[in-house]
Amino acid sequence: MRVEFDEPKCVAAGQCAMVAPGVFDQRDEDGVAVVLVAEPGPELADEAQEAAAVCPAAAIRLVEQ
Amino acid sequence: MPGRRDPPGGAVNTIVVVGASAAGLAAAETLRREGYDGTLTVIGEEADPPYDRPPLSKQILAGDWEADRVALRTTEQLTALRLDLRLGVRATGLDTAGRVVHLDDGTEIGYDELIVATGVRPRRLPGAGAHVLRNLSDAIALRKRLLPGVRLAVVGAGFLGAECAAVARGLGCDVVLLEPAPVPLAHAVGEQVGRVLSSAHVEHGVDLRTGVTVSAITGDGVRLAGGELVTADEVLVAIGTQPNTEWLDGSDLALADGLLCDEFTSAAPGVYGAGDVARWHNPLFGTAMRIEHRTNAAEQGMATARNLLNPSGRKPFAPVPYFWSDQYDMKLHAYGYLRGHDEVRVVAGDLPERRFIAAYRTGDRLVGALAVGMPPKAVRPWRQAIATGTSWKDIHDIAA
């Protein structure tokens, strides 16, 4: 799967970094999310799904390849 | 008997979600992701497919985004969920014994399991012609009127009113912000923090008037309780909400400022609640709460779906509530349950600079943290400490 992150939508809530620390982090200066792994493997798929689901800005989409 | 289904314990073949906003959508998505393959009906009062509400008082009102940017999912994503999606339809009644939901188009729909996610609606004031802001159409209607020089009266300086006041100033409107409390938001975030947040509005030229109660909307502004008329071209009423539970009146569900649910978000056999409408027992704080935050809607929708599908392995829904607010250049993040706190302490940064973390105590526990302008890595340990029920006496050990 591939992570599509719509950065201008990000509200810096950090929910993604919390539920999927293997896939997302936050920038220090403004808290905006950073994609660590653009194509998460099966071991990260569940947490990536969770992050997309809880993102309060609907800024994360997962595209099956 | 129409719609009659097997009692709990039988196979679940029909799930109905009433409410097609963040909570309802999260529940529906989670049901599918967790393998539920049966009929999944989602009923939404609004004609629009599920959309996101927080940007309504921010990017949409400011005109930075077109309306289509708030869609929560693409058409393809919704199609993939294989929903029986009924939009523009309102639930009008519930028969829990027969397991039937009645709809305003005269039809009824049976269910094995029901998720109530009907949200809230704005409270209003007597008199016609005022705006409220809850739906996309509300935001678009108000945006059209916020031209430079327009005099806007915002009634209520809570987070919604404050955000709209900030946006309206950015658009060049003259804004008067009317608030009955002596300090805006004091009941939610404490007096000190409330004062600091409201100072930003005064600095940006908002005419903030506290200790005033609006009694009615008039044709040319608002009437205060003392009789004074505050003239305005447009009026926005942002004085809170009430849960949409009237359609549950006459059912045997317990209603008390929301649909009462237990810690598993269950309201009755076969009925769950999620999102703004649900008042559930949060075991992390040992109290019943109803949370109108965007993140809670998604998290509770997900948790409800999982408990519904796996009753024997159900888990208490025990989140740390979270919300954010954007006002001018301030970005505020709040974690926990701040309401009714006994003490506020600034634990990092500096209050007047509007760059700080404030910690909240209730009883002997750390129950909340509110941060403005602080890096996420400084804030995260506080969230973690709230999640683990840290004692107030131990907050010195929380990494700053």
Assembly of the depicted chains:
heterodimer
CATH architecture of the largest domain in chain B: 3-Layer(bba) Sandwich
Examine the coordinates and then state which fold CATH places here, giving the name of the CATH topology of chain A. Answer: Alpha-Beta Plaits
Q: Percent of residues of chain A in helical segments? A: 25-40%
Structural class of chain B: alpha/beta
Parts with pLDDT < 50 across at least 5 consecutive residues of chain B: 1-8
Number of helices of chain B: 9
How would you state the average pLDDT of chain B, rounded?
95
> Can you give the mean pLDDT of chain A?
94
First-residue to last-residue Cα separation of chain B: 62 Å
User: Can you count the beta strands of chain B?
Assistant: 26
Number of strands of chain A: 4
Fold and architecture overview:
The complex is a heterodimer of chains A (65) and B (400). Chain A has one domain: Alpha-Beta Plaits, CATH 3.30.70. In chain A, 28% of the residues lie in helices and 22% in strands. Chain A has two helices and four strands. Chain A has a two-stranded antiparallel ribbon. Chain A has a two-stranded antiparallel sheet with strand order 2-3. The radius of gyration of chain A is 10 Å and the shape is globular. Chain B is α/β, with parallel strands linked by helices. Chains A and B meet through helix 1 and helix 2 of A and helix 1, helix 8, strand 22 and helix 9 of B. Chain A: Keywords: 3Fe-4S, Electron transport, Iron, Iron-sulfur, Metal-binding, Transport. Chain A: Its cofactor is [3Fe-4S] cluster.
Short synopsis of the structure:
The complex is a heterodimer of chains A (65) and B (400). Chain A is α+β, with helices and mostly antiparallel strands and 65 residues long. Chain A has helices at 15-19, 42-54; strands spanning 2-5, 24-26, 33-35, 60-63.
